[in-house]
Specification:
Pfam families: ABC_tran. The chain has 9 helices and 12 strands. The protein is an alpha/beta fold. Strand 7 (167-171), helix 6 (179-190) and strand 8 (195-199) form a beta-alpha-beta unit. Helix 4 packs across helix 5 (149-162). The longest helix has 14 residues, at 120-133. The chain is globular and about 60 Å long. The relative contact order is 0.18. The model has no long low-confidence stretch (mean pLDDT 90).
Length: 263
């Protein structure tokens, strides 16, 4: 699927986050990604991955530091600017919407409606284009609430793509998907040509698809950079407290990781 814009560069500078009345969840996070990068963020449960994403799509305001989108401070961008440039797929999805698949995907076009005009034909065409790429053809009139977990996830990704964002943020997009669908969605995301930031539990998927990787642990950035330099047995073992072994794949340029509990 092609988008109407190129990806956006993103910079995070000394970002910290402390919820009201709580303890600090993120500590001086700094990272930079170029337009078109696919950044995979990995780390154990409670590392701060979802909290970081929420700061990046402005669901919460950082306690310190700043986020820049193509050099513009998030604080200077309107909600409409953000909605047109950033699309989000999160894990917290209601069990049921009283809408059809087509209705849900069309919601991705809301930021592009012009005044009283809904641009109905154009928006419907873009929504159907997104559904086709997520293998949702024939499901347009299905009720969202009747879908399986994997089908719901694909619908929500289609809604985000219909938005035609410069930056797409996803929290565990491969959740609820079987192996084939995981690979299909990540392959699709990698070919979009826009900037993507996603959290992933599967380190091997992150190593296989990301152009850049980051590891979080206890709200701190252990490493960020090219996957070969970040997703190493040493970094992974330190973050997850497991024994990690890297096995060379036949192409000689990549590795598959296996894990075992520390004795």
């Amino acid at each position: 699927m092609s988008c109407n814009t190129q990806g956006a560069a993103l910079a995070v500078e000394n970002l910290c986050y402390t919820p009201p009345g709580g303890h600090r969840l993120l500590h001086s996070i700094t990272l930079s990604i170029q337009a078109g990068d696919l950044l995979a963020i990995v780390g154990p449960n409670g590392a701060g991955k979802t909290t970081l994403l929420r700061c990046l799509y402005r669901a919460v305001k950082p306690s310190e530091g700043r986020v820049l989108l193509d050099g513009q401070n998030f604080e200077s961008l309107s909600s409409r600017d953000i909605a047109r440039r950033i699309a989000v797929v999160v894990q917290e999805t209601p069990a049921s919407f009283p809408f059809t698949v087509e209705d849900i995907v069309l919601m991705g076009r809301i930021p592009w409606r012009k005044g009283l005009s809904s641009n109905a034909s154009e928006n419907r065409a873009k929504a159907h284009h997104a559904m086709e790429h997520l293998n949702l053809r024939g499901m347009e009139k299905r009720s969202f609430g009747t879908l399986s977990g994997g089908e719901k996830q694909r619908v929500l990704v289609a809604r985000a793509l219909a938005q035609e964002p410069q930056l797409l943020i996803l929290d565990e997009p491969s959740n609820h998907l079987d192996i084939r669908n995981q690979l299909e969605i990540l392959d699709l995301l990698a070919g979009l040509g826009i900037t993507i930031i996603t959290t992933l539990h599967d380190i091997n998927l992150a190593a296989g698809f990301a152009t850049k990787a980051a590891i979080l642990h206890n709200g701190e950035m252990i490493a960020c950079g090219p996957p070969k330099e970040v997703l190493t047995p040493e970094h992974i073992s330190s973050a997850f407290n497991v024994k990690t072994h890297a096995h060379a794949i036949s192409d000689g340029a990549s590795h598959h990781f296996s894990f075992a509990l520390n004795s």
